[in-house]
Structure formats: structure tokens, C-alpha cells
Inverse folding.
């Protein structure tokens, strides 16, 4: 193999693939990036057997071939090259890679490529096309609410509904809170999938900032994301996501409308004096139209905050994990927040006053 490419193209492709390479004692080749080329294109591939990525870069191809190079080493080296514009990559004896620039020459020892696994290809022809930023926004809006424990993998995932004629829907829950985000209707049916939280983090990292459309294909136990010059594949969870619609309250006893920034500031101030359980008391006085937040900590002190709000319904006093409320507020796309209480010991639903495509349900602490 011998190719010449721009450093920036190579650097970007290595940055995308390096984080997906894995450490596997029984298959050490997985800690490598596979660089391969045929007569037409150059590809960089990495996988840890749960995730896989393939990135194409433009290059002048003088000789086809492939080489497996330790991901951490080549990423560290390329990231620290000076103001070089072009780089030549050439395989030499014993699977080694010669990296040449105008002012330097470097040899990185590689590994045999025979054991490097090929990425699967989708067999399912059903696919959905969606702008990358909409998919990323949907994942960002909910993924923090997924369970961090792998005991129940179906809730350590993000549920994505890709049903034709229905809004593209993202849902995550850890059983203490639930976040749901809906975007535009889906033009074709690609089914519904459960994407593991780690895969979601990588999808956000890879697609964040991209504006082009991506193609989504769910096939057997995998989901494929195809973009211009990029293929990402992830294992999906086999299981049934909870019927979350059943736990979202249909009737509410108290509605509170307040300024989002005011609520964020109040929660951040209160967090300084919260206890180990992140507990905050929220008191709604319907008569005076006032909301009070109270936190206390035996070691640091206590904090009380009062602010005006538009209150409809009954007065109420409940305990919550302040972090669960604070986590969801950046994803409320309006200046006003609607807090909907469904009664003592029942869930709180948080949504926007001007945009109801996002909602977050938070269970009170006294019901855990």
C-alpha cells in the first residue's frame, strides 16, 4: 500500500476511529486501526465487536493494500505533527507503516491484518433518511436519563422508534425518571431499536456538528448509520422497552409556569446545600403564586429560595432529586417551563410552554 493524503483528512479520520478501537486480550488486533485501499478509495476501520466504524478519505493511491496500526500510537503521532500539509503512508516489510512528510520519516510497527474482523453489512433494505443534527438532538435530549447499570440492558439504552408516518421518537429511563423527545414524521418504516448508552455517546461524538442527511437501517441485532464517507454500526439490545406511556400521568392537579433560567439558577444555588441524595423540597403555594425550593445539609448548611410563578390548581409540597430536574432543562426549547404535578407521591412532568416535543417525567423521592 502506498497513498498520499492531506494531514487534516487523515487526522480527522483517525480521531473518529481511534476511540472505537478496543482492548481485547484474546484478539489484540482490535486495538488497531485498519488502513486499507483499493483502486478507488482509502478506508480506515476500527471495531471492538460491539461498535464498528469505517471512514473514507480522499487520497492519491499509488499502490493498493492494507495495514493494521495501533490506534493510540498513530493517533498520538498524527495529532502532534507540525504544519505538514501532505502525508505519505507506505507499507514496508513485516506489516510496518512508513509515514513520510516533507520534513520527517517515521516507522510504526503494525500487526498482521488477517485476523482483523470485517464490519457487517446490512441485509435489510428498509431505511430511514433524516438530517444528522435532528438525530443527534433527539439522542442528546434523552440519553442522560438511561440507566447506568447493565443489569437491565433494555433501560441502559435509548429507545428509538422509526415507525412510518409517526414522529421519530427517542425515549430513555432509569426507572426514577424518563425523558421523551419527538421530531418530524418518518417517511419509511425502519422499525424500533434499543441503542446501548455507550453507542449513543459515540453516535453523538461522530455526528455532532454534521448537517447532511444520514441513512438509518436496523437489521437483525444491529443498527447501521450511513453518512457521506462514513459507516457506523452498533449492536442493539434484544429486549422490550417498558410501556412508558402507561406511567405518564393523564390528569394533573397543579400546573406551574415559570422562567427556565430562573429555575436553573435556583436549582444550581440549592445544589450547593443538598444532601448526599441530591434532595430538594419544592413547595407550590397556589394562593400566593409562589414557588419555594429548600435544601439542607448537616455539614454545609441550608438554602431557601422564593420566586413568583403562574400557578393553576392546588398547592403542593414534594421532594425530588434536583439533578433529575436540572439535567432535562437544557433540552426544553422555550424560555418558559411548565411543571405539571399529578398529586402527592405521583410523578412530575416537565415540558416547555412553547414547545411540547420534549417532556421529562421525574418520580418524587418519597415514592422510591
Amino acid at each position: 500500500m502506498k497513498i498520499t493524503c492531506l494531514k487534516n483528512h487523515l487526522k480527522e479520520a483517525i480521531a473518529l476511529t481511534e476511540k472505537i478501537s478496543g482492548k481485547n486480550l484474546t484478539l489484540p488486533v482490535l486495538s488497531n486501526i485498519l488502513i486499507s485501499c483499493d483502486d478507488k478509495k482509502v478506508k480506515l476501520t476500527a471495531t471492538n465487536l460491539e461498535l464498528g466504524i469505517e471512514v473514507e478519505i480522499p487520497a492519491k493511491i499509488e499502490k493498493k493494500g492494507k495495514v493494521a496500526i495501533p490506534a493510540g500510537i498513530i493517533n498520538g503521532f498524527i495529532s502532534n505533527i507540525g504544519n505538514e500539509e501532505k502525508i505519505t503512508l507506505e507499507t514496508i516489510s513485516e506489516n510496518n507503516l512508513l509515514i513520510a512528510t516533507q520534513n520527517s520519516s517515521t516507522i510504526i510497527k503494525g500487526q498482521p491484518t488477517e485476523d482483523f474482523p470485517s464490519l457487517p453489512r446490512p441485509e435489510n433494505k428498509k431505511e430511514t433518511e433524516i438530517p444528522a443534527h435532528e438525530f443527534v438532538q433527539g439522542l442528546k435530549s434523552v440519553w442522560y436519563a438511561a440507566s447506568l447499570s447493565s443489569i437491565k440492558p433494555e433501560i441502559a439504552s435509548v429507545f428509538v422508534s422509526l415507525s412510518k408516518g409517526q414522529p421519530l421518537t427517542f425515549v430513555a429511563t432509569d426507572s426514577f425518571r424518563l425523558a421523551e423527545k419527538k421530531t418530524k414524521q418518518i417517511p419509511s418504516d425502519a422499525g424500533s431499536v434499543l441503542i446501548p448508552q455507550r453507542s449513543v455517546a459515540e453516535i453523538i461524538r461522530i455526528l455532532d456538528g454534521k448537517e447532511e442527511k444520514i441513512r438509518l437501517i436496523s437489521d437483525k441485532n444491529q443498527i447501521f448509520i450511513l453518512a457521506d464517507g462514513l459507516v457506523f454500526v452498533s449492536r442493539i439490545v434484544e429486549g422490550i422497552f417498558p410501556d412508558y406511556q402507561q406511567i405518564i400521568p393523564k390528569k394533573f392537579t397543579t400546573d406551574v409556569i415559570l422562567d427556565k433560567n430562573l429555575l436553573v439558577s435556583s436549582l444550581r444555588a440549592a445544589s450547593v446545600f443538598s444532601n448526599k441524595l441530591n434532595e430538594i423540597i419544592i413547595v407550590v403555594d397556589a394562593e400566593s403564586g409562589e414557588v419555594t425550593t429548600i435544601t439542607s445539609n448537616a455539614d454545609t448548611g441550608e438554602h431557601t429560595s422564593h420566586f413568583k410563578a403562574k400557578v393553576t390548581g392546588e398547592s403542593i409540597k414534594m421532594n425530588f432529586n434536583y439533578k433529575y430536574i436540572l439535567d432535562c432543562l437544557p433540552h426544553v426549547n422555550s424560555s418558559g417551563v411548565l411543571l405539571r404535578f399529578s398529586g402527592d407521591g405521583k410523578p412530575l412532568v416537565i415540558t416547555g410552554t412553547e414547545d411540547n416535543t420534549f417532556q421529562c417525567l421525574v418520580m418524587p423521592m418519597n415514592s422510591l
Summary: The radius of gyration is 25 Å.
